[in-house]
């Protein structure tokens, strides 16, 4: 699944946190913005309540259940800037990709 396919799938499944904006920053591949204020998922960069920085390969491993989010965080593979509680709620978002 490409980043664009992922963003489209998340948008189709309304995979955002109501009233919150969460940006997943993959570095060079770009970002996916889960906009719970505008009720949409885009690949546009913008301000967010929470930014999650993770390599695309690590994200795929998390999505596929091969890497636990907490393990990725503890190993420094996943960094969170902003409201940590939003990041913790993303398990539900990942579940919508399966």
Describe this structure in words.
This protein has 98 residues and is α+β, with helices and mostly antiparallel strands. It has helices at residues 3-12, 56-63, 69-74, 84-88, 91-95; strands at 21-25, 31-35, 40-42, 50-54, 78-82. Strands 3-2-1-4-5 form a 5-stranded mixed beta sheet. Strand 2 (31-35) and strand 3 (40-42) form a beta hairpin. The mean pLDDT is 91.
Could you give a short account of the major beta sheet?
5 strands, mixed
Rg (C-alpha, Å):
12 Å
- The CATH architecture classification is 2-Layer Sandwich
Average of per-residue pLDDT values = 91
Structural class: alpha+beta
Query: Ends: how far apart?
Result: 11 Å
Low-pLDDT runs: none
Strand content: 15-25%
How many helix segments? 5
Return the CATH class.
Alpha Beta
| CATH domain topology | Nonspecific Lipid-transfer Protein, Chain A
- Largest sheet, order of strands side by side? 3-2-1-4-5
Helical content stands at 25-40%
CATH superfamily: SCP2 sterol-binding domain
- What is the N-to-C order of secondary-structure elements (H for helix, E for strand)? HEEEEHHEHH
Keywords for this entry:
98 residues, five-stranded mixed β-sheet, Nonspecific Lipid-transfer Protein, Chain A, 5 strands, single chain, alpha+beta, 5 helices
Summarize the structure.
The chain has 98 residues and is α+β, with helices and mostly antiparallel strands. Helices cover 35% and strands 23% of the residues. The chain has a single domain (3-95), classed as Nonspecific Lipid-transfer Protein, Chain A, CATH 3.30.1050.
Please specify the SSE layout and strand pairing.
Blueprint: H1 3-12, E1 21-25, E2 31-35, E3 40-42, E4 50-54, H2 56-63, H3 69-74, E5 78-82, H4 84-88, H5 91-95
Parallel strand pairs: 1-4
Antiparallel strand pairs: 1-2, 2-3, 4-5
């Amino acid at each position: 699944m490409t980043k664009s396919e992922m963003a489209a799938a998340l948008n189709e499944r309304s995979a955002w946190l109501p009233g919150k904006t969460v940006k997943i920053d993959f570095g060079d591949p770009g970002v996916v913005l889960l906009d719970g204020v505008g009720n949409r998922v885009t690949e546009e960069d913008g301000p967010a309540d929470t930014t999650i920085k993770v390599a695309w390969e690590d994200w795929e491993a998390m999505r596929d259940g091969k890497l636990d989010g907490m393990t990725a965080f503890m190993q420094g593979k996943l960094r969170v800037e902003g409201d940590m509680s939003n990041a913790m709620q993303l398990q539900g978002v990942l579940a919508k990709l399966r």
